[in-house]
Automatic annotation (TrEMBL):
Subcellular location: Cell inner membrane
TM region positions: 49-73, 94-113, 133-150, 162-181, 201-220, 241-267, 279-302, 322-348, 354-375, 396-418, 424-445
Membrane topology according to the record: Multi-pass membrane protein
A Pfam family recorded for this sequence: MatE
Organism: Roseinatronobacter domitianus
Nucleotide-binding in keyword set: no
Protein name: Multidrug-efflux transporter
NCBIfam families: matE (TIGR00797)
Amino acid sequence: MTVPVRSFRAHLRAVLALGLPLAGSHLAQFLLAVTDTIMLGWYDVVDLAASVIGAAVFFAMFTFGLGFANAVMPLVATAAASDQDAEVRRATRMGLWLSVAFAVAVYPIFWFSGTILSALGQPPEVVPLAQDYLRLMGVALLPALLVAVLKNYLAALGRTQVALWLTVAAVFLNVALNWVLIFGNLGFPAMGVRGAAHASVWVQVATVVGLALYCARASSLRRYTLFQRLWRPDWQAMGQVWRLGWPIGVALVAETALFSAVAVLVGRLGTLELAAHGIAIEISAAMFMIHMGFSNAGTVLVGRARGRGDTEALGASAKATILISTCLALVTMVIYVLYGGWVVGLFLSPDEPARNQIIALGAVLMMVAALFQLADGAQVVAMGLLRGVQDTKVPMWIAAFSYWGIGFPAGYVFGLVLGWGAPGIWIGLVLGLATAGILLMWRFWSGRAVAV
């Protein structure tokens, strides 16, 4: 399919107009975790390590539940493009229902996390703190998933600004609560990693309340009557969200659990290695959040084109999304290579005794992270494009094979068997992400989703 230059520029502008606020929102959401890492790094290295391993478990569960929220986005985009207001409402409501059910079902994992982490060989001084952290973060999971559903509902309708600014406000609220609860200011006791978890609960509750009020009161959204008779089940719509959402959840957790498993492998090397890994992975993930924003933009634009039956616009939107993500990846690679060690140092107190050791190891990990920027961007964008055409089951199997059939075994062999340490484990990530990027892009452009 050949797209005229002028038309293609219009698609580029459309991707940027939708993708930039979405990327900003994802980045601001991610900064909630980054601020925890920075502030805990200034508090105590053991508390930092506990938050790193705890966050790995939390995000594995969160991303699994995120499948239902992500299913809402293409369903709403396609329905809205064909003026099916009832379908917009039905899909979003049942996305909320399934998110609540998931959060309740997985809470026992958070409660008994100490036993699980001990069995996985985590440092004994880290496990009790990580368990306390996770028991509170299990409570935060419910509002966090509801936030995701409402954000995807708004994104599919082109209402991205409110989610962006509410999430930015949440970052500032999180910093303030962390300052009080982690360090024990304003008369509160110093709670360390436990304080960070308490802050996260209140931040997520405040965010979901803000989004719900906007969705209920905005004049442009009243036509959807989203919360009217919310308690009534809609089994047909629930089945639709379930069928589309659970493969998305499995694919997401396949990737996130790979990173969680990497944290577990690095944790077996020692506390300092785990701290360096946690800092480097969060720096890398910050840029991934931007790719994810453009991936979401691709999902929405491809979903809208599908709803209109416009194959030409579908293909052009996909190409524009890929081009923007590729340019972003190239810029990121340069930043990682030139400034990786300096950025790692920002996460540590100048008085930290192990500061130089952590920075040295973190800088090496950032060099490895530069290698998979193109692959990581390609796989998340391709996954988003496939969701836009509601193709989720085959991508799920591709993700599972790439991350666990190639990425994890390679990381284990390079890092622990051959003794290459944390950099060797990260090389396994490169191979898994590269495989996923190639196969998912082939899946989209092979002729099944769009004629090239």
